[in-house]
Design a protein that fits this description.
alpha+beta; Nuclear Transport Factor 2, Chain: A; 6-stranded mixed beta sheet; 6 helices; 6 strands
């Protein structure tokens, strides 16, 4: 490396040094990939969770719901999904639509502390199901609360894609958007 610097003209050397400094600052400000903070064990799926659409959707909501201080059922939750599944959270950032894409571990790491520290219950209130062959799409309207009977803190729609392999159901992806004043839930997705 020193021989490279010696051959540079002062202007080129200055630009080179500034470039390295800029890259160093940019790299230092780039968030590091998140590590797996929450250990999720590998377990066998419960038959009642994966043999019917009702069972897998019930488990989808049960595994993330619970009171303040109670660990979530992440091992059971992981059994519901194909290995390369994706969660996509749709939100508004800086006034523009944004899709936050996560694998299962990233979702767990980003939500676990909040769910456990605040208490979190998500409950399905309406479902629209469409199927073709081994593919099923479910629009599952939900409401959120911090306690089972507490006030509703939010609502939205989960768009869940599922695959039936001849023996069991698998969730392939789950995309959701929360209801907002400028994004009310359409009547067709309400009870």
């Amino acid at each position: 490396m020193p021989s490279l610097l010696i051959r540079q003209t002062p202007t080129k050397l200055y630009v080179f040094v500034l470039s390295i400094a800029f890259i160093s600052v940019a790299t230092a400000q780039t968030p590091k990939p998140e590590k797996a903070d929450v250990k999720v064990e590998t377990i066998a799926p419960r038959s009642e969770d994966v043999t019917t659409l009702d069972g897998i959707i019930k488990a989808f909501y049960e595994t993330i719901s619970g009171p303040k201080g109670q660990p979530r059922q992440w091992a059971r939750d992981r059994t519901l999904y194909i290995p390369d599944m994706r969660f996509v959270s749709l939100e508004i950032r800086d006034g523009k639509p944004h899709a936050e894409i996560m694998d299962h571990q990233t979702y767990v790491d980003r939500t676990d502390a909040f769910f456990v520290s605040q208490g979190f219950y998500e409950r399905e209130i309406h479902r629209v199901t469409k199927s073709f062959g081994n593919l099923t799409h479910i629009f599952s309207t939900y409401e959120m609360r911090q306690t089972p009977d507490g006030p509703i803190t939010g609502r939205g729609i989960n768009s869940i894609q599922l695959f039936y392999d001849g023996k069991r159901w698998w969730i392939v992806s789950a995309v959701w958007d929360d209801e907002r004043s400028d994004n009310p839930i359409p009547q067709e997705f309400l009870p």
